[in-house]
Write a structure and sequence with these properties.
Layout (H helix, E strand, L loop, with lengths): L1 H24 L8 E5 H18 L3 E5 L6 E5 H17 L6 E9 L2 E8 L6 H4 L14 H4 L5 H11 L3 E7 L3 E9 L5
Parallel strand pairs: 2-4
Antiparallel strand pairs: 1-3, 4-5, 5-7, 6-7
Helix pairs in contact: 1-6, 2-3, 3-6
Bound molecules: adenosine-5'-triphosphate and magnesium ion (MG).
The site of magnesium ion has 5 residues, from helix 3.
């Protein structure tokens, strides 16, 4: 009984933390702590963090960051959080034997980060709602995959704070790709 109330307490405190984050992100007083971030290193940090759980789930986690180092003026801990949320989703929705790929590339004066998986995908009618707070495609599976439906809303608000954008594309049964775009130079 103690164990399950501990679990519930952890879940609630994570929920409160996520809600506070979203509330603060909407405040005009919120400041980014921008620094020069090596995007390849940032992706490698996320990969190292999720490597063990990916292996347990029979999934390979691959980083594709191109030949040249990509540097952008970002809030490092916020961008870590955004990419982590995406990788956590990808691992949760990809069956054993699948691949989750983290990629970064340069666009004209902008940086693109992609997290792609070979997982179950998202039905077309749900795709436009996955960034909504508390929206989950299959809430009946919530016992096993445990989320509250705030992860992508947080990703979107982190990108908005950076003057960037988050987009999702998916094919049922084939996989999902989330694309983050942001300017490489601080715009605000
Ligand atoms: N890579 C993905 N593959 C398939 N479905 C996904 C993927 N990413 C997100 N989803 C769907 O979108 C929903 C919303 O994702 P989101 O990250 O916002 O919430 P969550 O993962 O359910 O909970 P939380 O992130 O708050 O723990 C998920 O519940 C899932 O149904
Ligand atoms: Mg999530």
């Amino acid at each position: 009984m103690l164990e399950s109330s501990l679990e519930e307490t952890v879940r609630l405190s994570e929920l409160i933390g996520d809600l506070l984050f979203l509330a603060r992100a909407e405040s005009p007083l919120t400041e980014l702590h921008r620094e020069n971030v090596n995007i390849g290193e940032l992706l490698a940090t996320v990969r190292d963090y999720y490597e063990a759980s990916a292996t347990d789930a029979g999934i390979s986690l691959v980083v594709n960051d191109g030949a040249e180092p990509l540097i952008a003026e970002l809030d490092r801990s916020l961008m870590l959080r955004a990419v982590s949320n995406l990788v956590s989703n990808a691992i949760a929705h990809t069956p054993p034997g699948g691949i989750v790929t983290l990629a970064a590339m340069n666009e004209v004066a902008a940086i693109r980060i992609e997290v792609s998986d070979t997982g179950v995908g998202i039905p077309a009618e749900a795709l436009s709602r996955v960034f909504d707070r508390f929206f989950r495609v299959d809430p009946s599976r919530s016992k096993t995959s445990g989320g509250t439906g705030l992860g992508l809303a947080i990703v979107q608000s982190i990108l908005a704070l950076h003057g960037g954008s988050a987009e999702i594309a998916s094919q049922l049964g084939r996989g999902t790709r989330v694309t983050l775009r942001m300017s490489a130079l601080a715009t605000r």
